[in-house]
Design brief:
pentose shunt; seven-stranded mixed beta sheet; 474 residues; Rossmann fold; oxidoreductase; NADP binding; binds 6-phosphogluconic acid; 3 domains; N-(1-d-carboxylethyl)-l-norvaline Dehydrogenase, domain 2; globular; alpha/beta
């Protein structure tokens, strides 16, 4: 029997499509699924696309792989992942590679990588973005793990990934959990992008009284400029959709409670630990949470709100476009800050420009905009914040009047825009010469003797607030 180049275990939609993508690129693919009928179905339906080597059990699957073995796990992230890893690892030999292509938490990936490394196995936590279609036609792929495993896996993963201008949307992100961390931040940014789009839709619809299908045209138009991206493109399609049963706009028949599998929440949790203000992602995550409390919403439905009238519609569409672009710049700047902070914390040496490069195609947040981020890091790999890049600084300067008008209008007519508002507050906070954090420090020193530093000399100080109010070195 000819041995397979690589294997996929877990053949739900993502796993099946990834296996097909590999086979279509000429790799012999070992395939396995806990329920064997799914494996049989894959071979029956798509066997003509390439070489599949099916196995009924994991022992057969491992035995069907060339050495060193390369096995990709595509199972739902969670406790089940540990069980599959344990079973696979027991059948493998030093030098073999286990790739986890699910949305695992990076801390789990770090733990698993360390445990398998002790046994001489490579564990490669790999972010894969692009949904079902991406898995089949070319996703954005973010592998972590050892440099040695990258040598054996990199060419295959780059081969099956999306390409933009001939450049694969896949690089070795960094060691251990770096790949899953970067995928997590990708998802956090995805939350933020979607929240900003939703706010744009909501504000325009409420303020101007236009229909979703009219707004589809607005988004389609926006997609031709700075905002050109997959999410703007599909927003137009979703807004245009009409429910066949009722004839109503599709968005009006969908329950307005946004769900999540958790990667956005993880991004915010990690950002809190790293001390990085990812306010855009946090507001997006909390907006989903707010939407998911129907009992509170019903109880609050009769609370007083402002009069909706008096909006000047002429400028609003362009203002919202500018606010969306500016807020998006902030959200990405924050996400990239978080990756930089994690890189320092875990010693990953992440190349931020390369992260922008591999998100240009294949993934959910793919956008023209990422070319500009890449250019910013090419020009200065140590950029302290993307907001300081001359191109983005210029775009923010051009957008800020519109952005302020949008937030003001939203506040005045009572349409919640936490994404726009918090992004603007972040922008204003970061550009301030002096922040009221000095007062916070003073208060901390007053009630807790927490000390403070001075602007004019080194050291920590404390005022004897309850005594003579004289300052002493702490
Ligand atoms: C991707 C997506 C994918 C998934 C999200 C959805 O990059 O292909 O991000 O990973 O669609 O996990 O996340 P929520 O269910 O949390 O919205």
């Amino acid at each position: 029997m000819d041995l397979a180049d690589i294997g996929v275990t877990g053949l739900a939609t993502m796993g099946r499509n990834l296996a097909r993508n590999l086979a279509r690129h000429g790799y012999a693919v070992a395939v396995h699924n806990r329920t064997h009928s799914r494996t049989q179905q894959l071979v029956k339906e798509f066997g003509g696309e390439g070489t599949f080597v099916p196995s009924e059990d994991l022992a057969g699957f491992v035995a069907s792989l060339k050495r060193p073995r390369r096995a990709i796990i595509m199972v739902k992230a969670g406790a089940g992942t540990d069980a599959v890893i344990d079973q696979l690892a027991a059948l493998m030999e030093p030098g073999d590679m286990i790739v986890d292509g699910g949305n695992a938490h990076y801390a789990d990936t770090r733990r698993r990588e360390a445990a398998l490394r002790e046994r001489g196995l490579h564990f490669v936590g790999t972010g894969i973005s692009g949904g079902e279609e991406g898995a089949l036609l070319g996703p954005s792929i973010m592998p972590g793990g050892s440099a040695e495993s990258w040598e054996a896996l990199g060419p295959i993963l780059q081969d099956i990934s999306a390409k933009v201008d001939g450049v694969p949307c896949c690089v070795h992100v960094g060691p251990d959990g770096a790949g899953h961390f970067v995928k997590m931040v990708h998802n956090g940014i995805e939350y933020s992008d979607m929240q900003l789009i939703a706010e744009s839709y909501d504000l325009l619809r409420q303020a101007l009284g236009v229909t979703p299908s009219e707004l589809a045209g607005v988004f389609r138009e926006w997609n031709k400029g700075d905002l050109d991206s997959y999410l703007i493109e599909i927003t137009a399609e979703v807004l245009e959709q009409v429910d066949a049963e009722t004839g109503r706009p599709f968005v009006d028949i969908v329950v307005d409670q946004a769900e999540q599998k958790g990667t956005g929440r993880w991004t915010v949790q990690s950002a809190l630990d790293l001390g990085v203000p990812v306010t855009g992602i946090a507001e997006a995550t909390f907006a989903r949470a707010l939407s998911g409390h129907p009992e509170q919403r019903a109880a609050a439905a009769s609370l007083a709100g402002p009069d909706l009238s008096g909006v000047d519609g002429r400028e609003l569409v362009e203002d919202v476009r500018q606010a969306l672009y500016a807020s998006k710049i902030v959200a990405y700047a924050q996400g990239f800050d978080q990756m930089a902070a994690a890189s320092r914390e875990y010693g990953w040496d992440l190349d931020l420009g390369a992260m922008a490069t591999i998100w240009r195609g294949g993934c959910i947040i793919r956008a023209k905009f990422l070319d500009r981020i890449r250019a910013a890091y090419d020009a200065d790999p140590h950029l302290p914040t993307l907001l300081a890049d001359p191109t983005f600084a210029g775009a923010l300067a051009a957008a800020q009047e519109s952005w302020r008008r949008v937030v003001t209008t939203a506040v005045r007519i009572g349409v919640p825009t936490p994404g726009f508002s918090s992004a603007l507050a972040y922008y204003d906070g970061l550009r301030r010469d002096r922040l009221p954090a000095s007062l916070v420090q003073g208060l901390r020193d007053y009630f807790g003797a927490h000390t403070y530093r001075r602007v004019d000399k080194e050291g920590a100080f404390h005022v004897d607030w309850s005594g003579d109010r004289a300052e002493r070195p702490a």
